[in-house]
Amino acid sequence: MLHNLSIEEELRNCLKNHDESSCIPPICYSNEKILEIEKDIFFKQQWICIGHVKFLKKAGDYITKDILNTPVIIIRDKSLQIRVFANVCKHRSAKLLEGTGNTKGIICPFHSWAYNLEGKLKGVPNMNDARHFNKENLSLKEFPSEERQGFCFVHFGDNPEKLDDQIDNFENIHSKWPMESLLSTRERSFNVNCNWKAFLEVFNEYYHLPFVHPETIGDVYQLPNFPDKTKGSFTSQFGKTSGTGALLEKEQEYALPEMPGLNADVINSVRYTWIFPNLTFAIGNDALWIYEVHPIGPESCKVFQTTCFPETTIKLDRFEKLSKQYYHRMDAAIEEDIPALENQQAGLRNPYAEQGRFSPLLEANVVSFANWYAKKLISSSNFNSFLNSNT
Ligand code: FES
Ligand SMILES: [Fe+2]
Question: Which domains does the chain have, with CATH numbers?
Fold first, then answer.
């Protein structure tokens, strides 16, 4: 049973300072209606980050992806600008592209309507007898998209605010790393039986490290700094490491070179950044690793894991061998996180689960997210109707 007033009051507890803030109320991790509201206000009414796209280098390089059940094409056009199209034909709605690759144009596999890389319909076989048929009006549905430091942002709503207003000092905070020169070398995806927020939270907190990762990465991380002051819908926390955070503590001898041009103050460190709502990454000396999380239902999510390295590192003869140790570290940590998350989810759906309190420093990025989340939810008319309907 829902206690509507208390949900709102509990959300207000998330708006306090770091050392006073409470965790997001448990009901927000298992309720279907709340998930629908989240999808609307977080995923459709603001810019969302859909991954690092520098590996799409040439005109016509593309990937396809389903974002909240919307299949999209992410492609470089002739002028090398990234574009994001709905992956659906303007004739009889066939899906246009699959997987990843390079193409001169987007040709529908069904009746061969042909679109150029800018999404304009150029070729329509056997349509000469169609009256009042105007190719000009049949460009692919395009969503506003922009690139920042190699990351692609897209907006599915009608009135996008300026991206720079949403992630104001994002570039500044990451300017010490050569983000633009990084290329992804492995992406894999998997489903986890937990709420989408829980997955992002565990990646962003230090508190669980000695308890969930005692033998693998727990000792690599030192106490983090307090989070940076961010302006906009993201949070970021920097911390020193013993060696590289991208390798297991027992496999540090496999380290690849540092990224070119790093300042001494970011050697042996990791910066953890969460671009709200659903993409988070860690950037260290040598590698960038990214998690993009899409809700499937209130208690399950699909996760895309991507690992990136500088182009100079990828060209090394030893890269193929040593990169495997990096992938091994990513997978080993996640294999320890997943049972912890599924166990947490079992607790979150317990009707007696109660709102907890954060460790101000060790869960600092999670506090910032809870604050942002609660503020958005409380001010949403959808959420207020939900509260009223449950009085
Ligand atoms: S559905 Fe695409 S050309 Fe017919
Ligand atoms: Fe973890």
Answer: 4-45+177-382 (3.90.380.10), 55-149 (2.102.10.10)
